[in-house]
Amino acid sequence: xxxxxxxxxxxxxxxxxxxxxxxxxxxxxxxxxxxxxxxxxxxxxxxxxxxxxxxxxxxxxxxxxxxxxxxxxxxxxxxxxxxxxxxxxxxxxxxxxxxxxxxxxxxxxxxxxxxxxxxxxxxxxxxxxxxxxxxxxxxxxxxxxxxxxxxxxxxxxxxxxxxxxxxxxxxxxxxxxxxxxxxxxxxxxxxxxxxxxxxxxxxxxxxxxxxxxxxxxxxxxxxxxxxxxxxxxxxxxxxxxxxxxxxxxxxxxx
Length: 254
Prior knowledge:
By secondary structure, the chain is of the alpha+beta class. The chain folds into 2 domains: 4-54; 69-238, Beta-Lactamase (2-Layer Sandwich). 52% of the residues lie in helices and 15% in strands. It is built from 10 helices and 7 strands. The strands form 2 sheets. It has a 4-stranded antiparallel beta sheet with strand order 4-7-6-5, sandwiched between helices. The chain has a 3-stranded antiparallel beta sheet with strand order 1-3-2. The chain is elongated and about 95 Å long. The two termini are 35 Å apart. The model is unreliable at 54-62 (pLDDT under 50).
């Protein structure tokens, strides 16, 4: 014969309060019988509810999808990114996998600020970030952006899926050839409707990374991205727990 449980026993099994038990009884999610002035609940019914409420890892991902940048606590990441970028003396930004910036650019140089002040320049930067996001390399490596600077990226992975990228840039790994750099500046000025003189003035002095600092930047970039992933994963776990609690104790709207 199916064992009957008291309200307190059901509370303990489901880890909810008495009000929630009665709410589930009222909306039909929980079946019970009234004996005198007290409700009793079939153990099989309670255990069936527990089974239905159990959330597998795949279901948890559907609540907060793996690869979704929605779980990124952007305000928190912005503060950490700002301090870190200033400390290592590079520009930094976090973008989604399509190159769209999720944070403001940290420690941005005047040259890039001029380019980003135009819509065409901003779109060129987004296109460069998108290429980084789509590159198959697992570890950070240096590439040349549309403005001639070196930059690199590290993936921010949640549940094993890339959710966003952290980009470090606005530096050189060697002193640029003066004639070639002048050609780049003129091309950028014409393309984005900027003053050649302003761009030229903003291009000095160059931020040139030594071999030692280049190696350190790659390590720092990956560590920071991994830290962002840990913070975001914890937030995703919290949101999923809140989702399950809300589903179990939803307020009756009738």
